[in-house]
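User: Structure please.
Assistant: Input sequence and predicted structure:
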Amino acid sequence: MTFAATIRSDAVRQAADAWRRQTFLRRFYTALGIGSLLVAMCTAMWFADEANAGHFFDRLPHILDFLSWLVPKDWNDVWRALFDITSPHDKGSQEFNFPLGRVYLWGGFYLPEYFELMLTTLNVALVSTFIGFVFAVPFSFIAARNLTPSPVLRLVVKRFMELLRAFPEIVIAGLFAAILSTGPVAAIIAIGLHSIGALGKLFYEINENIDMRAEEGLRAVGANWFERVRFAGLPQVLPNFMSYTLLRIEINVRISTIIGAVGGGGIGEELKLSISRGFGTKTLALVLLLFTTIFLVDQFSAWLRRKLVGEQAFMMGA
């Protein structure tokens, strides 16, 4: 009895020692990782400060200067700028020339300038996402291991999609802007090409997890590859395809705003000009419109995705 108790005591002591060693190692590696991250971050900030012409750390105390000019003297001017209403503070300068941006549709009815620019940005996002969806769907079925037996064909399509998403949209937009000149067309091509690569990867990963029994049944009765994809694969994955496409629209709205700031048209270009000129009222109006639009797009796409894939999919993801 005593011998058995001694053995159990030794086993408990060894287990406790092993747990303490494991805990010590875990804490040591965690501290080492955090310390390495802090060193890397401080080194990067030091390098950025040396490379920055304005000296980042020297200018850091003046960060609130930016916020000071951003605050308008009259908050009602934000709404006037948003809806192109004449401001009582207009002295003929470009800072308060709100009515000059009106886009007249018929008679005295007009579309406010910033709403028209926001529609351009949304149009770029929607068209580029549509382009990405149209090309990503067939590429995803070709790249799927369980649907395309040819490894060479799968490899070529996968590498092609990787190439499309390897470069940031802003780089592709700069290339096409040099060829086609600045404007929404270059932005649509850039975001569309990147969307093909991004959606294609998501889509073919979905395709590789489909139930193959329907495909095997069609294969047994002599259906060709297109028929098997159309009637066995596509019905299973289409709701998830649409869900990811809606998510991509949210991303592309933000990206089209960024590309607009470098000549892609839309609200991003006007926002960049407003900030560079120090027009605080116009900047706040643009930010307010942009935030509201992105919020509404996010909420609508989330609601629509729940309708497509079911509420239980979101609960499982949570």
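The two ends are 51 Å apart (CA to CA).
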